[in-house]
Amino acid sequence: MSKSAPDARPERWLAALALLIICIISLGNVVVRYTTDASFAFTEEFSVFLLVVLTFAGAAVAARRHVHIRIELIEQLLPIRLRPTLYVLQWAASVLLLGLVVWYGALLAWEEYNWESLSPGLGYPTWIYLIWLPLLCLAIVWRLTQSMIERCQICLQTGGNDES
């Protein structure tokens, strides 16, 4: 990734904030539990929600930096001029999968909103937790698109020089 390319800064901050809040509420719960023999009721529900946010925000960062776990054998065996085709196919498969998650995640959040479902632990509307799934999947799609465009440009800049 070039130094001038955006590096998913909002997603990095969101992931860092989610991790920080998880640490603070978990530590606070441990301290309160051992000093008072009681615990905060909200910590599990919030921690699970924040862990999902952390995971998807981190996935967006990884998509932008192109550091997701993958098999590079085919990519390395292809001549540089054919790699953009592979990159577009990888992108299309990822967008298809994430598009399904966006669609069904948004549908689920909408249904939970319409049904006015409440979370079992704290009684908050469940759509507040669920709406983050499609939104963060859209962020991943955006970062995958940026990464794919950048990788294709790099291949085109190297041109016909098949060094790999």
TrEMBL record:
Tripartite ATP-independent periplasmic transporters DctQ component domain segment(s): 22-151
UniProt-listed GO biological process terms: C4-dicarboxylate transport
Major subcellular location class: membrane
GO cellular component: plasma membrane
Hydrolase listed as a keyword: no
Pfam families assigned: DctQ
GO molecular function (one): transmembrane transporter activity
Quaternary organization: The complex comprises the extracytoplasmic solute receptor protein and the two transmembrane proteins.
Function recorded in the entry: Part of the tripartite ATP-independent periplasmic (TRAP) transport system.
Protein name: TRAP transporter small permease protein
Organism of derivation: Oceanisphaera profunda
